Structure formats: C-alpha cells, structure tokens
C-alpha cells in the first residue's frame, strides 16, 4: 500500500511538472511569436518612413534620383510585407483565441495600413519610372464567412514563394474595416470574397494557380511564364 501511494504521488508530481512545463513553453512561444511580429512591423514602419524620405529626395533631385531609389528599395519591399503577413496568419492558426486578442487585431490593422502605403508608393514608382512589376491585390475575410479565402491564400503563397520579388502581392483583411482598405474595395467594386485584382482587373471567386499565372503572363514577363 505504501509503495502504491508513493507511485501515485510520483505520477502526480511528474504530471504536474509536465503540465507546468507545457504552459511555460506555450507562453514562451507566444511571447517569441509576438516579439517576432512586432519586430517585423517595426521594420515595415521604418521602411515606410525611409521611402517617404526617399520620395522627398526624388522631388528635390528629380526623376532620375526617384527611379534609382525605387529600383533599389522595391527589391526588398514586397517580399518583407508578404512574409510578415504570413507570420501573422501562422500565429493566428497556432493560437485558438488569437482572433479575439486585441493585440492581434491591432497588429493586423497596422499591417494593412502599411500595405496600402506600400501599394501607393509602388504604383507611383510604376507611373514615374516605367517599372513593370505586376501587382496582385487579395481581398479576404475570416474563414467562417469566406470558405475559400484560406485556399486562395495558399495558392497565392505558393506563387509568391516561386516568383519572389518578380510579383508584388498585397493582402487586405476586409474584417478590419479600415477606411483605406474600404476605399480600395469600393474603387475596385469588390462584392464577393475572395477576390483578386491583377494589374487593376478584378477576378472574384476562387482562382487557381494556372489562371493567376496565365493572367500575370498576359501582362508581364516573369520567370514562371512559359518560354516563347
């Protein structure tokens, strides 16, 4: 009987230690993910501020300076934005209560605001310097209300990984109800989700890899396009 009591006590202590360890590990991972995203968001903000300074330099020194600035800066710009968006979504998937977390909602709001700024700067650079980088806008909302939004995100993620900086992809969360995002939504007359805008043309509903690449290749030449 005494041996059984000891075994029970040891088992209880071991279970308690494992439970506490798992709780602490989960908290550590949450803190690590939050810190990663916060650092990423700060990089996004810093990049935006730097680009605004560069635009001022372009106004002072002329179009040649503007084009030199964008040719260097935009190589890194879109990739970092999309990667940060994926990290935020990965954090959402890893934490069941993340959608109700005020911190998460704040980060998504900041992220989408910066995306709109980046998009505006990129389109301006295309107009001023003749850049040919194709642009894809992805409008989505939560998976409960939009069953195909996650599937569309997966397809775009695959294209982004393969095309890299050859294609600029911006994702906008309609649920955040941001004024700037709503303006884009109304401008492109988005009435169905998911919805893509590829080079200013709207394609609502789920779009597969082949359709997106075909549309891209009609408007630009990237490495994923079939060789002529």
Mean pLDDT: 75
Topology as H/E string? HHHEHEHEEH
Number of strands: 4
Question: Largest sheet, if any?
Answer: 4 strands, mixed
- What gross morphology would you assign? globular
Number of domains: 2
Distance between the termini: 83 Å
Q: What class would the helix/strand composition place it in?
A: alpha+beta
- Biggest sheet strand order reads 2-1-3-4
The number of helices is 6
Low-confidence stretches: 1-12, 14-25
What integer value in Å does the Rg equal? 22 Å
Strand content: 5-15%
- Can you give the helix content as a percent range? 55-70%
Summarize the structure.
This protein is an alpha+beta fold and 228 residues long. It has helices at residues 2-61, 63-94, 102-129, 149-163, 179-187, 209-219; strands at residues 135-140, 168-173, 195-198, 201-204. The chain has 2 domains: 1-130, no CATH class; 132-228, Glutaredoxin.
Defining traits:
228 residues; alpha+beta; Glutaredoxin; 2 domains; 4-stranded mixed β-sheet; 6 helices; 4 strands; globular; disordered N terminus
Describe the structure.
The protein has 228 residues and is of the alpha+beta class. It has 2 domains: 1-130, no CATH class; 132-228, Glutaredoxin, CATH 3.40.30.10. The protein is built from 6 helices and 4 strands. The protein has helices at 2-61, 63-94, 102-129, 149-163, 179-187, 209-219; strands at 135-140, 168-173, 195-198, 201-204. It has a 4-stranded mixed sheet with strand order 2-1-3-4. β1 (135-140), α4 (149-163) and β2 form a beta-alpha-beta unit. α1 packs antiparallel against α2, α1 runs parallel beside α3 (102-129) and α2 (63-94) packs antiparallel against α3 (102-129). The longest helix is centred in the N-terminal third of the chain and has 60 residues, at 2-61. The protein is globular and about 50 Å long.
């Amino acid at each position: 009987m005494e041996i059984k009591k000891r075994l029970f006590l040891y088992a209880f202590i071991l279970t308690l230690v494992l439970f506490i360890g798992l709780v602490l590990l989960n908290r550590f991972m949450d803190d690590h993910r939050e810190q990663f995203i916060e650092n990423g968001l700060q990089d996004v903000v810093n990049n935006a501020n730097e680009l605004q300074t560069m635009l001022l330099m372009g106004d002072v020194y002329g179009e040649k300076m503007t084009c030199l600035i964008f040719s260097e800066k935009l190589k890194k710009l879109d990739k970092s934005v999309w990667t940060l968006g994926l990290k935020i979504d990965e954090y959402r998937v890893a934490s069941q209560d993340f959608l109700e977390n005020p911190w998460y909602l704040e980060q998504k709001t900041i992220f989408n605001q910066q995306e709109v700024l980046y998009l505006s700067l990129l389109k301006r650079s295309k107009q001023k310097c003749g850049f040919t980088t194709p642009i894809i806008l992805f409008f989505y909302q939560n998976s409960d209300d939009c069953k195909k939004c996650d599937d569309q995100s997966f397809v775009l993620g695959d294209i982004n990984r393969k095309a890299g900086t050859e294609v600029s992809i911006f994702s906008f969360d309609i649920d955040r109800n941001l004024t700037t995002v709503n303006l884009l939504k109304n401008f492109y007359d988005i009435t169905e989700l998911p919805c893509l805008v590829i080079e200013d043309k709207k394609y609502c509903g789920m779009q597969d890899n082949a359709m997106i690449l075909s549309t891209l290749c009609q408007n630009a030449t990237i490495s994923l396009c079939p060789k002529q």
